[in-house]
Amino acid sequence: MSSKLKAYTPLLWVLVIPVLNLLYAPLNHGKGTVSSLMTDLDKQIPFIPAFIVPYLLWYPFIIIMLIIFCANNKRVYYRTLLTQCLGLISCYLIYVLFQTTVPRPSIPDYGVLYKLVGFVYNTDEPFNCFPSIHVLTSYLMIKGVSLCPHFSKLVRLVVFACSWSIICSTFFVKQHVLLDAAGAIALVEMLWFAVGRLSPFKEMSMQKGVSPSEKNEYFDRR
């Protein structure tokens, strides 16, 4: 196996994500007690169909970011991926115990943007809201890129802009409310800290003057 191909074999761990996502659909229902976390502030947020674009771009954005992390910094890649998997499991457990919903507006059936919103509404029931998985994974990319000092300021700015536009899109297309986002961000902070305390990540964080390539070799060996 060539060295270049071997460097990308850790990407196979990304396949854990679609496996975990199989749990989403069975939980996406309104059976039992369903709560609403909508506040008066949420009611003031307008519905803006244009935000369906960054909302849908979330899917390729997360995959691209994981590929970038894998190629540039294995430590960040493994920490981000593990945190994401633990975050998904945590969200699914919360959905079982505390199901919430978000009321959706009536939308017309004409225009590309409205049709895209309608597609999302038809394929995703208005449940599994707290915490928001869109927010959790997007905020996680911000945490990951913050640990990559060799990335240019422009790259970081682009990642920050994409992540926050996706987070905001969840409000403007009425898929989530503010508390859904707050819960997701809090969950990321807790899990990110906990994963960072695991020995491989602690060992690497304690090493000074270690290049990104050496960090990659360290995690390739483990």
TrEMBL record:
<keyword id="KW-0812">Transmembrane</keyword>
<protein>
    <submittedName>
        <fullName>Phosphatase PAP2 family protein</fullName>
    </submittedName>
</protein>
<feature type="transmembrane region" description="Helical">
    <location>
        <begin position="178"/>
        <end position="198"/>
    </location>
</feature>
<feature type="domain" description="Inositolphosphotransferase Aur1/Ipt1">
    <location>
        <begin position="55"/>
        <end position="190"/>
    </location>
</feature>
<dbReference type="InterPro" id="IPR036938">
    <property type="entry name" value="PAP2/HPO_sf"/>
</dbReference>
<feature type="transmembrane region" description="Helical">
    <location>
        <begin position="125"/>
        <end position="142"/>
    </location>
</feature>
<feature type="transmembrane region" description="Helical">
    <location>
        <begin position="154"/>
        <end position="172"/>
    </location>
</feature>
<feature type="transmembrane region" description="Helical">
    <location>
        <begin position="76"/>
        <end position="98"/>
    </location>
</feature>
<feature type="transmembrane region" description="Helical">
    <location>
        <begin position="47"/>
        <end position="69"/>
    </location>
</feature>
<dbReference type="InterPro" id="IPR026841">
    <property type="entry name" value="Aur1/Ipt1"/>
</dbReference>
<feature type="transmembrane region" description="Helical">
    <location>
        <begin position="7"/>
        <end position="27"/>
    </location>
</feature>
<keyword id="KW-1133">Transmembrane helix</keyword>
<dbReference type="Pfam" id="PF14378">
    <property type="entry name" value="PAP2_3"/>
</dbReference>
<keyword id="KW-0472">Membrane</keyword>
